Amino acid sequence: MALRPYVVGNWKMNGTRAMLAEARAIDRSAQRLMKVEVALAPPYTLIHAVHREAEQIGVGAQDCHPSADGAFTGDISAAMVADAGAKFVILGHSERREGHGETDALVRAKAEAALAAGLKLIVCCGESEQVRDEGRAERFVTAQLEASLPDEIDAADERLSVAYEPIWAIGTGRTPTVADIGAMHRAIRDLLVSRYGQDQGSAVRILYGGSVKPENARELLAADEVGGALVGGASLTAESFLGIVVAAVDLQDA
Ligand SMILES: O=C[C@H](O)COP(=O)(O)O
After folding, report:
1. Residue 123 contacts residue 111 (beta carbons within 8 Å)
2. Which of 181, 186, 216, 217 could be a cystine partner for 223, CB 3.0 to 4.6 Å?
3. Nearest CA to ligand 1 atom 8
């Protein structure tokens, strides 16, 4: 892996101020683990507080609105999360696509808004179990991603990462085989290179997400073209999240 592996914790709708102790513990250990880039995406309500705690780790948001401002009750713009201390935003997570009807076009509009606000992006993609069973996972995921990505990226400052998260692996304890992850990540890499050119397309980190735990992290992170992990449940305690970070460090050292 040319770039440092990127291990990102997505807290989803979990966390009150009591969880700041976990963020602090992760941050203080991440200091000793410089070979890996570590970040957390807490709920909106904790972005500023985690940002204040964080000396080493990155802080991001789990979504943003495509408009810069306006009459959108309950929504949060990219500039607002940046103002709260976020440096990146996760977009197009399957829980947003499924639970909030987000289309590829909306994800793309959010991506453009986030770039305009100076944020980095983690754009998510992934197939359902039915799509995988029908043997069209790669076609589905690459088409979904192609329609969700921003037009242009600046690879020099690593503005874009992609997260491949098979929906059937999220929170289930099930994962694809290492061979299947490698095949999907290669297909995504081909798409990125044809979309952005060799240099920029090669510099995008492709994260794997879906039931990553300390016990399986080393194996999953070693799959072809895997540049890190997007972690849900196992990012909620410092102990389990750091177990994944340590696996990524070990792999770098191997
Ligand atoms: O964003 C994270 C993913 O949805 C993975 O969640 P999980 O690690 O709980 O399976």
Report:
1. yes
2. 181
3. 232
Closest by Cα among 243, 178, 222, 231 to 40: 231
Binding residues: 10-12, 171, 211, 232-233
Query: The domain 127-160+167-229 belongs to what CATH superfamily?
Result: Aldolase class I (3.20.20.70)
- The token pair that represents 238 in the structure block: 């410092």
- Label residue 1 by pLDDT band (50, 70, 90): very low
pLDDT in tens, 41-55: 999 999 999 999 999
Protein residue whose Cα sits closest to atom 7 of ligand 1: 232
Domain coordinates in residue numbering, the chain: 1-62, 65-84+96-118, 127-160+167-229
Q: Which residues contact 210 (CB under 8 A, 6 or more apart)?
A: 126, 165, 166, 168, 169, 170, 172, 174, 175, 176
What separation in Å is there between the alpha carbon of 120 and the centre of ligand 1? 20
Interface confidence: ipTM more than 0.90? yes
